[in-house]
Each structure stands twice: as C-alpha cells, then as structure tokens.
C-alpha cells in the first residue's frame, strides 16, 4: 500500500546497523517513511525492505564522498516528495595518537564526521525551508566535550558538529526547523566493540551509574528530540552518558 503524500519522511544516515538501524525500526513503527544509506546493504536492510515495502528505501552511499550525499537527498525528494527529519547518525571512529596519524587519515575523519553531516544538513534544510518545518538531530559524542587520548581528530569533528548545530538552530528556528545534538557516552555498539574488557571496566568505574548504556537508551534520547514532546527544544546538546562527564 502506498503511504499518503503527507506521511512524514525521515532520513537516517548509516541506518543499516547499530543505532541507525534501531532508529529506522522505531520510525517505521511510528508510521514514518524512512530513507537511509550505508556503504553496503546487509541483512537488516534486506529484511526491512521486505517488511516495510514502499515506506522504506535504502541506497548505497559513502560518507567519504560528501558530494554524492546531495544526490541521495535529491533521490529521496524525488521518491517521497519531502524530508521532515534528518538524523545525522553515521560516523567513523579511528583511534591513534595524533602525532602518528597520517594526514590522509585526518582528512578522512574530518570528511566523514563533519563535512558529510554538514552536507546532508544543507541539502535537507533547503527542502525543510520550502516546507517551513522540520527537525535535524546530530549524533555527536562525549569526545566533543571531554578529552580522551587517541581521538583528537574525531573529537574536533564532533565538537564542530555541535557548534554547527547551535548556529543552525539560530538560523532555521524562524522557519520552524529545530536542530539539536544527542551526545552519547559509551554504549554497546560496533564502534565500541574493540574496547578491551579492562578498559570497559575502567569506564564503568568512572561512570556514576556504574555501567555502559544500552543502545535502546540512546535511541530513546534521539526519538525524544524527533518528537512533538520536544517541540520547544532547539540548539541544545543532550548528553546521555550516565554521568561520566559531570
């Protein structure tokens, strides 16, 4: 069955796995049409395409090639006719001491974690301005607000994304477009799968709530910012970290 033309449309970057896939599932269950991209489809995408039909659309795209993301948004608009929500979820983490990080790796990290989400926001904001309404949620990191060894470039990109969101909220607020950041602490996902058991225990000891978050707890925060319950919240960074940065 084809959804009505006024059914809201969400774009979730990196929606084939991890937090992105959880958000895709939740939005579909709430009656949204959802578009996402990743470098490869995988089992989740294949299963969701079969279950959701025309309400779900996936396309291959790469954060490392930001110009292709404009084409992705144009294709979403051609298919669904609107964009009501952008969740800038996808990111790339590389851990290495700054002085030994190759210049090419620095460029890749900045491109994937800052240039790509800014490019997506630019393309989506243009559509939202025509609609006079929309929501942008950027998924940041506690690395943006607290220093950790080995992630200096990643931290710089995420801090830039938070600053970008605050300024964008100022610009787009008069057009009824809200912009916020979710700032996750440590939670179980593929990005943290390589954390050693020793470091995991150290993180838990330093966290006032004494544990890592579950992925659903991060999704809860993002979904709140997407919802009407957050209709008067914009320009904010919502830290979800169990208190480790307090």
From TrEMBL:
Q: Please give one Pfam family short name.
A: adh_short_C2
Q: Which UniProt keywords apply?
A: Oxidoreductase
Q: Which InterPro entries match?
A: KR_dom, NAD(P)-bd_dom_sf, Sc_DH/Rdtase_CS, SDR_fam
**An MF annotation (GO) of this entry:** oxidoreductase activity
The record ties this protein, via CDD domains, to: SDR_c
Give the signal sequence positions.
Answer: none
SUPFAM superfamilies, alphabetically? Answer: NAD(P)-binding Rossmann-fold domains
From which domain of life does this come? Bacteria
Residue ranges of every copy of the Ketoreductase domain listed in the record: 8-218
By its UniProt entry, which PANTHER family does this protein fall under?
OXIDOREDUCTASE, SHORT-CHAIN DEHYDROGENASE/REDUCTASE FAMILY (AFU_ORTHOLOGUE AFUA_5G02870), SHORT-CHAIN DEHYDROGENASE_REDUCTASE FAMILY PROTEIN
Give the family this protein belongs to, as stated in its UniProt record.
Belongs to the short-chain dehydrogenases/reductases (SDR) family.
In its UniProt entry, what is this protein called? 3-oxoacyl-[acyl-carrier protein] reductase
Q: Which organism is it from?
A: Herbihabitans rhizosphaerae
């Amino acid at each position: 069955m084809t959804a009505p033309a006024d059914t809201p449309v969400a774009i979730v970057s990196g929606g084939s796995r991890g937090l992105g896939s959880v958000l895709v599932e939740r939005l579909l269950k709430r009656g949204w049409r959802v578009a996402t991209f990743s470098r490869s489809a995988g089992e989740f995408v294949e299963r969701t395409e079969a279950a959701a039909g025309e309400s779900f659309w996936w396309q291959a795209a790469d954060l490392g090639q930001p110009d292709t993301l404009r084409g992705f948004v144009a294709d979403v608009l051609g298919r669904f006719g609107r964009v009501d929500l952008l969740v800038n979820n996808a990111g790339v983490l590389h851990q290495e001491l700054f002085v030994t990080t190759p210049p090419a790796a620095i460029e890749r990290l900045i491109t994937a974690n800052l240039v790509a989400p800014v490019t997506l926001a630019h393309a989506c904001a243009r559509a939202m301005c025509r609609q006079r309404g929309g929501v942008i949620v950027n998924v940041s990191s506690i690395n943006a607000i607290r220093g950790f060894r080995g992630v200096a470039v990643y931290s710089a990109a995420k801090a830039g994304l938070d600053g970008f969101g605050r300024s964008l909220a100022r610009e787009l607020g008069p057009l009824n477009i809200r912009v916020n950041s979710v700032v996750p602490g440590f939670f179980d996902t593929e990005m943290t799968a390589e954390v050693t058991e020793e470091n995991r225990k150290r993180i838990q000891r330093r966290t006032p709530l004494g544990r890592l978050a579950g992925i659903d707890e991060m999704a809860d925060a993002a979904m709140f910012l997407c919802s009407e319950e957050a209709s008067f919240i914009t320009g904010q960074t919502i830290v979800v970290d169990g208190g480790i940065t307090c």
